[in-house]
Write a structure and sequence with these properties.
Number of strands: 20
Radius of gyration: 25 Å
Strand content: 15-25%
Largest sheet: 7 strands, mixed
Strand order of the largest sheet: 11-10-9-12-13-15-14
Structural class: alpha/beta
Distance between the termini: 55 Å
Low-confidence stretches: 95-103, 150-157, 254-262, 368-399
Helix content: 25-40%
Shape: globular
Amino acid sequence: ARIPSLRWIELTLERSTGLLVLVLIWNGERATPAPALDKLIQGLWPEIEAGALHAERRWHSIWVHWREPEPSLERAIHSKRPDAWLQVRPAASDKLLTGGVTLDRSLVNETLDGLPFSFGPASFMQVNLAVFECMLRDMKSALRRVVVQEDGVSQGRSLTAPGEKLRLLELYGGVGVIGLSLAHAASGWDEVSGVTLLSTDLNPNCAGPFALNVDGIFPELSDGGTDPEGRCQAQFSVLSGSDALVQLANPEGGGGSSSSSSSPACAGADVLIIDPPRRGLADASQKVGLIGGQRQAAEIRASSVRAVLYMSCGHDSFMIDTDRLTGAAPEAQGAAWGPPFRLVSLKGYDMFPFTPHIELLGIFLRDDVGGPHHASALLEAFADRDRVVSRSPVAGPAWEENFVCQFYVGIEQDATFKVVGRLLGPSGKNMRDIADKCGARLRLRGLGSGFKEGLRGQETESREPLMLCISVRGDRSSYDKAVGLAGELLEKVHLEYRAFCKRTGRPA
């Protein structure tokens, strides 16, 4: 018999409070005696008398994940069973030091690109949220380019016919961060008649946080998932990516073994959002080789989908899936596969600095779907020199790229050195000088910046480190000049800071 023991720990930071969620993955069955586990929990967060005030300021919550013998888990760390999770701290009797309000820390709350999201300990959350927010903004921009007719052309730019809702289908959606972000953005565009989102994930523990996220982002959807005017709809279904694609390719025949009878089915989609594990569309993980994936790619090609937003953490699987979606792979050709897609945009993100890993975001459009959905007009929106990947560039006006970057200041704002004031200059002169010379937009954000962001009426200063954000539209040379001037300004301020530290005796 296996000796009950600690297998793994997980730490999650809630940025708004600075508190940590601790998950202890324990090799053992729930409700069996575990003295070593009890001692560990008591040492980390001592239990107090009922009704007493608790001054704990390190932990957000502590959970135990009971990883009891379950052959189907193989080497997986987590079980999907809801009863495998137990919140052990804060105890029901613990109260906040100020206010005397019972602690409710079953969820981690984050604001991502201005929208509120809740995550449970059993649901996936990206590690580098700052970079993930950049990806969210790029996905919104890409979707708008595809959907919105910017030049008055009546053919080709719109994914839907006039009066039809934009249908979004999200695979491996977790608590719906990407899908809900895109649905929220699209619902505010005048050119879109309405938006429907079906977010799917095999993990049933995502359903609860997804519902809370819908309530927070679309309060009008709180009753049944549809607003009174019928403009928006957002639903969650417990489906694996493979089963969702079976239903997508056969909307009338259904299919898929993982959906419950009460879960909505995939009845077709215009835009497919994919954020799979490292294996991509394949059935098996990389530890045994990328097995399968042909059927999933064929089902996407055979479906009503006209655009695919593919976020990937696996380079090998992304390349294989791309060859199949675009028809470049020998096995992915022929009428049975349906019209291919074209990869029109590919961008990499440094999700894990100082490692060789690069997160990818690929935008795929139908190569030829006919009528108003022909890809040649859609491709005009992506005809810029830095990001288009196309063997047959389409003639037409280039889309103005928005060049952006962030400088982490590396000096905290305080009442003595006042780094924010030194960066801004007298009455903002330093920022205005760069803006006037380069046509750039500059903004200080993060801790100490004074800049508040978030939903209207709930704006707060971001808890990210202080940073200088720069954006320039359409002109790479102006962008490079703005980056150079900002670098010179930061170097000057850092020299002043080192002199200040030497003068005042503090470490630089």
